[in-house]
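Supplementary Note 3. Input sequence used for the single-chain structure prediction.
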Amino acid sequence: MIKISPIDIEKRKNLDIRSGDTICVTQKIVEKDKKTGKPKTRLQDFEGLCLAVKHGKEAGGTLTIRKMASGVGVERIFPIYSPAIEKIEVIKRSKVRRAKLYHIREKATKEVRRQMRNIKEVPEVEEEFDTNTQTKVNDSEESAKADNGTEEKTEEKSE
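The predicted structure, written as C-alpha cells, is reproduced below.
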C-alpha cells in the first residue's frame, strides 16, 4: 500500500465523534528557535466541547470545538484529516438532543451575565493623608496624637 498522507486515515475514519463530546485535540505547532533559528515542533492541547461535526467522515470533514479560557469563550475549527493534528481523543461522552450545539454560545454568555449580577460591590475605603508630610494617617496614629493632645484637623468629604 502506498502511503500518501503522514496520518493514519483509517484510524481517523473509525473515530466516533459526536456533538456534545468533550474532546482533546493535540496539534503540532512549528516555531523558530530563538537562538539557532531552526524550526522546532511542539505539541499543544485544545480541550473543549464539540459543538458540531460537519461533513462526517469525508475528506473535508471538520470539528468545531469550544472551550472557556480565562472567562472568554474560544472556538476552533479543526479539519479531521489535517496532518497538523497529532491525535484526537474523546474524553467524555454526553447525551445531547441536537446535532449542532450553537445555542451553547448564548447560554454561556447568559450564565456569565447572571454570575456578574450576583457579585456584590465592595465599598471603597477612603485613605486619609497628612497634608504636611504627604503620608497616610492610620487609626493608631490618630489615637496616639489624641493622647498627646496634638490633634490635626482632617477634612472629610461627604457623598
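The chain has three helices and five strands. Residues 103-118 form the longest helix (16 residues).
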